[in-house]
Amino acid sequence: MMKQSSKDLIGQLARAVGPSGFEKPVGDIIRKHLDGIGTLETDRIGNIVCEIAGIDPKGQRVLFAAHQDEIGFMVSEILDNGFIKFVAIGGWNTVTLPASPVEILNADGDMIPGIIGQLSPHFLKKGAAPQIPELDDLFIDIGASTAQEVQQSFGIRLGAIIVPVTRFHFCEKSGCIMSKAFDDRIGVAALIELGTLFAKDPISNTVVLAFTVQEEVGTRGAKVLANRIEADVALVVEGAPADDVPDGPAHPQTCVGNGAHVRIFDPTHIGHPDLLRFVRSTAASRGIRIQEAVRKGGGTDAMVLALADRGIPSVVTGVPVRYAHSHNCLVSFFDYRELVLLLHAVCQDMPAL
Length: 353
Hints:
With 353 residues, the chain is an alpha+beta fold. It has 2 domains: 4-70 and 180-349, 3-Layer(aba) Sandwich (Aminopeptidase); 72-164, Elongation Factor Tu (Ef-tu), domain 3 (Beta Barrel). It is 26% helix and 27% strand. The chain contains 8 helices and 18 strands. The chain has helices at residues 4-15, 24-34, 147-153, 182-200, 220-226, 273-286, 302-305, 333-349, and strands at 39-42, 48-52, 61-67, 72-78, 84-89, 101-105, 111-117, 139-141, 161-164, 169-171, 176-179, 206-212, 233-241, 260-266, 269-270, 290-294, 314-321, 329-332. The strands form 3 sheets. Strands 1, 2, 3, 12, 13, 14, 15, 16 and 17 form a 9-stranded mixed β-sheet that branches. A 6-stranded antiparallel β-sheet has the order 5-4-9-6-7-8. The chain has a 3-stranded antiparallel β-sheet with strand order 10-11-18. A hairpin with a 2-residue loop joins strand 14 (260-266) and strand 15. 46% of the residues are buried.
């Protein structure tokens, strides 16, 4: 059964508005939950680092990193007829966008509702096949009739951020959670819970919790963090795209409900072999279910953090997320719980590599 405290934390983070470059509402939640738990620091780009000192001054420094930002949109043009054009912040699957509800943050801080529109199929040439929309073909309809109305009555300017409208829902029967932004708010939640555990029961190793920004637009926050971070090992915590859906791979490696994701390889990072072996052995000895994966695409903050300083042995972990990079995602609380248990156990037992 899902703990109410975990449900509230995940829900609060998932509902928060925080596209890349505009993560402050997410950061405020993080700082509130970690206040008094460790030494908190926020850099000038928005990365948050919480350090929880270990009992042993000679213990390992174990870095955990999750990114605050979500994908979103930005107003790029306000048309004379009141429709709004937009650009993507991060990577979207455009097939999922038409008729989706969104909200635009106006100059007064109010959320203005709208709908992503496209040319109706009624107006396509007879016999023409529906096409996969390109972002330039789409627009947002807020019910305005003129550009002046958009700007003056609705308070919407160029550069206003746009976020999906979704409902946060936990299903008691399946133990699954549905909402937006699980890439990577589910990782952020896991790190906050991890910090709470270590604050209550300190360990020998020093724990460094890093919450990066702008991961979805090129791991920009991690690049800033890598300039100054000191760690002996790093575990990057992600909302990992699940591949257990119809017409997916014949042998899926990241299934919802099968445990924590542990990534061996993706095109931007190769998991450190010794750290991978330790993660595997820890999971086996503690009875924690994990799923190992070799990815043909994608990338994470590990591509930057592994190259920091003289190099940091790193592995990517996470929670499987169905329908990542769309308005609505689905995760399993079982997988989330297994991930928190795995990270906690790994940090407790971490040897020098």
